[in-house]
Task: inverse folding
């Protein structure tokens, strides 16, 4: 996927199932580039290997946060509040984006890890 986050290592913090998708939230990320990733949410459709959606929380050099939603060939950046540095708040915001983009409002996400 174009614009996918590039990182060397990351630690899975939690996993969720939502319909035919699995989501993982990664933390403790060592980046390949100059991005300072705080969390990466990756959504993978069942029976596929590559994520169809990323939601990324980055800290800028000015110590502000940006949330970036990356799907297919598109990405959109949003200013983010400090609240999203909390993993639960970030996960909820990322899950909300996934639900909207993939029309999963009839599905109930549940944590598997």
Result:
């Amino acid at each position: 996927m174009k614009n996918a986050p590039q990182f060397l290592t990351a630690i899975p913090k939690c996993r969720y199932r939502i319909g035919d998708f699995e989501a993982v939230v990664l933390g403790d990320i060592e980046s390949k580039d100059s991005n300072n990733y705080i969390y990466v949410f990756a959504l993978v459709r069942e029976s596929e290997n590559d994520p169809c959606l990323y939601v990324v929380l980055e800290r800028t050099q000015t110590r502000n946060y940006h949330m970036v939603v990356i799907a297919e060939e598109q990405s959109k950046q949003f200013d983010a509040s400090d609240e999203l540095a909390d993993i639960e708040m970030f996960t909820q915001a990322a899950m909300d984006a996934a639900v909207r983009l993939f029309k999963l409002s009839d599905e109930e996400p549940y944590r598997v890890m």
Q: What stands out?
A: The longest strand covers residues 7-18. The mean pLDDT is 94. Residues 7-102 form one domain.
